[in-house]
């Protein structure tokens, strides 16, 4: 099959009208928003009629055409409120969720609804689509536990709140014809938590051709972190580990992203005496991010709550080794000693040791890790993801794409 055929799908089949229901979407900057944007653009490129329903990113709301990833699509922006405990999050009003869903479904008449969460927008769309006999595919990017730091709920009610959210998730996901999440480990977790035994593991996918691997001899030891500057990312552990690195390494740490913990982490870097070697870059453009990956030596990902980590995939596509917490889906991407190292979550001493391991590799060993990242990201091709979702949209049986290179043959490892 040619590259053009892979990107446009099977032209002999009728295009679909797909409605993507998302509680977070561009210009929001997080994994779920990035996946929904890439999915929508990829489907448009394949000839499908795509509608996205998401909270308005400002007070302006309504329906209009937007361009994402170079593709034009219809976006229905719902009236939203700013959630001030979070640095940018806006949410559609829960008590309008089903009314909004009914109005948009009756106007658009989609062939399928692809929900990106079981919360406000996804919840309303799933319920109303099921009532109308419209097929629902649900993808979960969310662990309710991660929302707690933004709810302002006291600790003694957080555990009951999480249980309540999972009960509601079980009810909403039971209405979907198919349920997916990005990795097998995340799928196993979701099956235990939501009471389904048929969750598909489908990678969010990445277009690796957009990233630029660098194999020139390194001129500095630069560690990079990319993501929201929030508690579950455990960036404090990274800064503490960084402060333990031998000064002879002359390492620098670049933290890219925004969030509510930025001031606290800047203060921590100052307290530990490393503020002059830690840069908080804030939000950056896609091109600036690609440049940042290219100048880095290693990605550090200390987060304990990644259901896949698009950032890690982007870094691997840039041929970076990764030092990651041995938690949730990260071991699916990072194979210890092959394309990076894993460390015990929260252990700053072990993280410092593993970062030192990468930073002290000779050039030949470092190149081997970089090439391992490129090899291991290859099965996560976004075109495989799009093809699998097209089949799910049509109600066809699918075999989850193989994305763990431990399951790939030797010939495939060699790119044959």
Describe, in plain words, how this protein is organized in 3D:
Keywords: Glycosyltransferase, Transferase. It holds the Pfam family Glycos_transf_1. It comes from Paramicrobacterium agarici. The structure is a single chain. The C terminus is likely disordered. Helix 11 links the parallel strand 15 and strand 16. With 416 residues, the chain is an alpha/beta fold. It contains 15 helices and 16 strands. 44% of the residues are buried. The protein is globular, with a radius of gyration of 21 Å. Strands 3-4-2-1-7-8-9-10 form an eight-stranded mixed sheet.
In short, what is this structure?
This protein is α/β, with parallel strands linked by helices. 38% of the residues lie in helices and 19% in strands. It has 15 helices and 16 strands.
List the helices and strands and how they pair.
Elements: H1 3-8, E1 17-21, H2 31-45, E2 49-55, E3 62-68, E4 71-78, E5 80-82, E6 90-92, H3 97-108, E7 112-115, H4 120-131, E8 135-139, H5 155-173, E9 178-181, H6 184-194, E10 200-201, E11 221-226, H7 235-243, E12 251-256, H8 262-271, E13 278-282, H9 286-295, E14 298-301, H10 310-317, E15 322-325, H11 330-333, E16 340-343, H12 348-359, H13 363-377, H14 382-393, H15 410-413
Parallel strand pairs: 1-2, 1-7, 2-4, 7-8, 8-9, 9-10, 11-12, 11-14, 12-13, 14-15, 15-16
Antiparallel strand pairs: 3-4, 5-6
Helix pairs in contact: 2-14, 3-4, 7-12, 10-13
